[in-house]
Specification:
- The protein has seven helices and nine strands; from the N terminus they run H-H-H-H-E-E-E-E-H-E-E-H-E-E-H-E.
- It has about 230 residues and is α+β, with helices and mostly antiparallel strands.
- It folds into two domains: about 5-80; about 105-225, Gyrase A, domain 2, CATH 3.30.1360.
- Strands 1, 2, 3, 4, 5, 6, 7, 8 and 9 form a nine-stranded antiparallel sheet that branches.
- Strand 3 (about 125-130) and strand 4 (about 130-135) form a beta hairpin.
- It is globular.
- The termini are far apart.
Length: about 230
């Protein structure tokens, strides 16, 4: 990156790619809906657009810094320091919004807060509670954990953090046929990339106890927690 014209050209290219990508995704989703394709393909395609945005931002910021590493690098650090809370919310929101279970209308319970998702935004979501609408930052979910409750049945969609030396494939093999898990429902395991920690989205069969599932995990040397911070 040699001058400001190169940076402007890069920004235009990145923005153009995003427009083309969004249009292609729109057409693909229309075709998939007509053919009644499995929901996991919808989720995968939407994740592409979701994670393209931060990738594009990182590319542009990197190019901006390369124009003057010292001055622009210092400026980026200062802006990042003042925007640290927003950045944390944005990053947490990426992984939360990537879940196919996070949709408008779903009941969410996080700590003492329980409400229906009314709106989902970049930094948080609006929950409709008994006391009215309430804004909740995504980092709040990281601190207290959360449970998703199906809005049509008594089946519970849950989220739990795992810590184990097992790899992701082994974890899925261990829990795949567990009797408390609802057949045909999404089972999503995401590695958090630190300290052998994972985030698991799963759905319980109506009338079953979550403790049965967590006890099984413990018997397989898999620790569980409602937040990503496990006690040492």
């Amino acid at each position: 990156m040699n001058n400001w014209n190169d940076l402007l050209t890069l920004i235009l290219i990145v923005f153009t790619i995003y427009l083309i990508l969004s249009f292609c995704i729109f057409l693909i989703l229309r075709q998939l809906k007509k053919r009644r394709i499995n929901d996991r393909y919808f989720t995968f395609i939407k994740k592409i657009r979701l994670f393209y945005k931060p990738t594009a931002w990182l590319i542009c910021i990197g190019a901006f810094i390369s124009l003057d590493a010292l001055t622009h690098g210092l400026l980026a650090v200062l802006i990042g320091a003042f925007s640290l809370n927003q950045i944390r919310n944005y990053i947490s929101g990426l992984f939360i919004r990537a879940s196919p279970m996070i949709v408008a209308g779903t009941l969410v319970k996080a700590g003492k807060i329980k409400g229906r998702i009314n709106r989902i935004s970049t930094l948080g979501m609006v929950l409709g509670t008994d006391q009215g609408e309430r804004w909740v930052w995504y980092t709040s979910f990281d601190k207290v954990g959360f449970t998703l409750i199906s809005n049509q049945t008594n089946v519970q969609q849950r989220v739990i953090y795992l810590k184990t030396l097992h790899n992701g494939e082994m974890i899925l093999n261990l829990i795949f046929n567990h009797p408390v898990l609802a057949l045909g429902q999404t089972l999503n395991l995401k590695s958090l990339g630190q300290n052998d920690t994972y985030l698991l989205h799963y759905t319980l069969v109506k009338g079953t106890q979550n403790e049965d599932f967590t006890n099984f995990l413990h018997s397989q040397e898999i620790l569980t927690n409602q937040t990503e911070k496990f006690n040492s």
